[in-house]
Each structure stands twice: as structure tokens, then as C-alpha cells.
């Protein structure tokens, strides 16, 4: 076996776990969610229902949609069982999220098997043991293995080799690259990088590195097929952050818009990976070498960064007279852990946090909406669940 890294991704995991108990819904549209869709089966997806869609909107698109209230304990228990099975195949296993894992079969009894033979073993075993479908991607780097999974979904298998990976991914739009959010996508497009091949074919990347920062080197190595993050069984993420290099910002509204973009990117990552965090940090770097940083510690673990908290931190440490000297701004969610509770926390879960936040949030909401000329920030109607 030349390509020994596998990415296993469960298909519509939450919905599939429910379907395993309700086979009568197999050919009917079904979704798991409370206020928003957490997971939809492929019948529902074929009718236009998508993850993160408001349930009211989903029902308008698909009136016959069956909604099942999420049971996080059930999904976590199933995830643990699948992990236990996969770890019996290789101890070199890394958890990507509740429903995906990376496996390196080097130095195992399977390393001399054909890639498709091992993938078939995984897929057939998971189907027989748990009555669930999964997609398996295989390659010589973890990044390309996951890209293979995305291309092979649902219930498929694909190997990306050193000889064929370019033909599979280089013509894809950069938004298809795993791990980059809307903010980084926008930056790359502004640099006239629209397709993955554009990133691979860059000759002089000095200006790009200056604008994108550390993300660029890792991104370029990934699309060139160079391993930059080997599988690490002991890996546990401690933080999740985003940063942006800045040139010629001078207005408060420009920073406000950027802060919202970075915060939205982090919140998307927190939601996708089902993480909670305990503190948030903002850091500003100036062209003269100075920097300023400030953190806020929450009483309880949170699942989303409240925008008003980050804006408040920015206002505390920023110097209006030096706005045009800011060269980088970063936001980070720290002390991360997996959400082990059925109910996600909100910014109002702690009574000590609720005091005087509503009026301030209303002020920020109006200011951002006015700046961007559209209503993008609104209040949740109640506690969100996954």
C-alpha cells in the first residue's frame, strides 16, 4: 500500500443514527435539530434541506420533513463505539470531530493490503456493526485524504495518489479547500487566487505571505501534497483562532467589519467541531513593533463568541491615533473542550454575564447592520441545541 492515510467520515451522522433506530423513515426526508438543522439525511438534502438551515425555512422547503430532537448522549456513545473499532485497526488514530477520524495504517497488519481492500473492510464493518454508512478517503497526506472523502460522499471511497491528486482537486474553487472560512476565501480571491491550482502555481508569494500570514505556508504545502500535520493520536486542540494582516485601515467601521468576519469564522469552526471554550483573546500588532492584547474569561463554557465581547476588547486596547499603523489583528477562543452536554450554552447562560449586555449588544448590532447596509446580526429566540 503506497497511500497509508485514511479519513473516515460518517454520512449524515446524527440523522443516520436516528434512522438506524427508525428504518421506516429510510426513504423519507428526516432531519435532526431544534432551532436549526444539525443533520439531514440525503433524501432531505435532495429536496433542498441543508445543515444550519432554520427549521422554519426547512419546513417551508420540505413540508413533509420529519424533525427529531437531538440526543447528544446517543451520538457521543455511537462515536465512541466507532472510535473503539477503528483504534483496533491502528493505534495511530486522530479524532477530527464527533463523526470523523484519521487513520495511519503504517506498521500494521494492513499496510501491505490494497487501499480499496482496507477501505472495504472499514465500510463493511461499520455497516455490519452499527448499521451506518461512511465515506472513506485515502491518500499520502491527511489533508488530501479528507479532500478525497469530500469528493467521494456519500457512502463512497476515493484514493488520491501522487500521480492523480492534481487532476482531482486543482480545478476546484478555493472555497472547497477544507479548513478555510469565508474571510480567508475572500482574501485569496482579492489576490486573484480563485482555484486551487492558482495557489499551487504561485511563483513569488512574498506579498501573499505578508497579507495572509502563517495560514499561507500551511495552505500551500497542503495543496502541493506536502505533509505539514502528521496524524497525532494525542492531539487535542487548545484554541481556535483567526488572524488577518491589515494594510491602510483608518476607520473604526473597517475594524468592526473585520472583527465580525473573523468572529463568524471562529464560530463556524466551533459549531462544526462541536467545541466549547472558556475565554476569548484579541491581539493587535502595529507597524512600529508594538502590540496590545486583552482577554475575557467567561464564568461558564461557551459555544459561540458574542460579537459585543470582542468589540469591547478591541475598544479597550486599540489606539484611535494609531489605527493606520495596525498591521495584524487576531482573535482566539481559548481553553477549548468538546461539548459533552446535550444543550449548547449561550451568552446568557450565566446570570453574571446577562447584566447590562442586552443594551450594549443592541448598540453593536445596530452599528454593524448600519455599517454593512443589511441586517446580518439578530438575536437568537432561545437557547440553541445541536
TrEMBL record:
SUPFAM superfamilies: DNA/RNA polymerases, Lesion bypass DNA polymerase (Y-family), little finger domain. InterPro entries: DNA/RNA_pol_sf (IPR043502), DNA_pol_Y-fam_lit_finger_sf (IPR036775), DNA_pol_Y-fam_little_finger (IPR017961), DNA_polymerase-Y (IPR050116), DNApol_IV (IPR022880), PolY_HhH_motif (IPR024728), Rev_trsase/Diguanyl_cyclase (IPR043128), UmuC (IPR001126). Gene3D superfamilies: 3.30.70.270, 3.40.1170.60, 5' to 3' exonuclease, C-terminal subdomain, DNA polymerase, Y-family, little finger domain. One of its GO terms (molecular function) is DNA-directed DNA polymerase activity. GO terms for biological process: DNA repair; error-prone translesion synthesis; SOS response. Coiled coil: none annotated. It comes from the Bacteria. One of its GO terms (cellular component) is cytosol. Residues 5-181 form the UmuC domain. Belongs to the DNA polymerase type-Y family. This is DNA-damage repair protein MucB. It comes from Malacoplasma penetrans (strain HF-2) (Mycoplasma penetrans).
Amino acid at each position: 500500500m503506497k497511500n497509508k492515510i485514511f479519513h473516515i467520515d460518517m454520512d449524515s451522522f446524527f440523522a443516520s443514527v436516528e434512522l438506524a433506530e427508525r428504518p421506516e423513515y429510510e426513504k423519507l426526508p428526516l432531519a435532526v435539530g431544534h432551532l436549526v438543522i444539525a443533520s439531514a439525511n440525503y433524501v432531505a438534502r435532495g429536496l433542498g434541506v441543508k445543515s444550519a438551515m432554520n427549521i422554519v425555512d426547512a419546513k417551508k422547503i420540505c413540508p413533509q420533513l420529519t424533525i427529531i430532537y437531538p440526543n447528544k448522549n446517543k451520538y457521543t456513545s455511537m462515536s465512541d463505539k466507532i472510535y473503539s473499532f477503528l483504534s483496533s485497526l491502528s493505534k495511530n488514530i486522530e479524532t477530527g470531530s464527533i463523526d470523523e477520524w484519521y487513520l495511519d495504517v503504517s506498521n500494521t497488519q494492513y499496510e501491505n493490503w490494497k487501499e480499496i481492500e482496507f477501505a472495504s473492510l472499514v465500510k463493511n464493518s461499520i455497516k455490519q456493526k452499527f448499521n451506518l454508512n461512511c465515506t472513506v478517503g485515502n491518500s499520502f497526506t491527511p489533508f488530501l485524504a479528507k479532500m478525497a472523502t469530500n469528493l467521494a460522499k456519500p457512502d463512497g471511497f476515493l484514493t488520491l495518489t501522487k500521480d492523480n491528486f492534481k487532476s482531482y482537486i486543482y480545478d476546484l474553487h478555493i472555497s472547497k479547500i477544507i479548513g478555510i472560512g469565508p474571510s480567508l476565501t475572500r482574501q485569496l480571491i482579492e489576490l486573484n487566487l480563485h482555484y486551487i491550482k492558482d495557489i499551487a502555481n504561485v511563483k513569488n508569494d512574498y506579498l501573499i505571505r505578508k497579507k495572509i500570514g502563517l495560514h499561507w505556508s500551511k495552505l500551500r504545502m497542503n495543496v502541493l501534497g506536502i505533509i505539514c500535520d502528521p496524524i497525532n493520536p494525542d492531539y487535542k486542540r487548545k484554541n481556535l483562532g483567526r488572524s488577518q494582516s491589515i494594510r491602510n485601515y483608518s476607520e473604526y467601521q473597517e475594524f468592526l467589519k473585520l472583527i465580525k468576519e473573523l468572529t463568524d469564522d471562529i464560530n463556524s469552526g466551533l459549531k462544526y467541531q462541536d467545541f466549547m471554550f472558556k475565554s476569548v483573546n484579541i491581539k493587535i500588532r502595529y507597524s512600529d513593533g508594538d502590540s496590545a492584547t486583552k482577554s475575557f474569561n467567561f464564568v461558564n463554557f461557551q459555544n459561540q463568541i458574542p460579537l459585543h465581547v470582542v468589540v469591547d476588547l478591541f475598544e479597550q486596547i486599540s489606539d484611535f491615533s494609531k489605527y493606520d499603523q495596525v498591521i495584524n489583528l487576531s482573535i482566539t477562543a481559548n481553553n477549548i473542550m468538546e461539548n459533552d452536554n446535550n444543550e449548547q450554552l449561550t451568552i446568557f447562560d450565566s446570570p453574571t454575564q446577562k447584566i447590562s449586555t442586552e443594551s450594549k449588544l443592541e448598540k453593536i448590532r445596530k452599528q454593524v447592520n448600519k455599517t454593512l447596509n443589511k441586517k446580518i446580526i439578530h438575536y437568537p429566540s432561545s437557547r440553541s441545541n445541536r
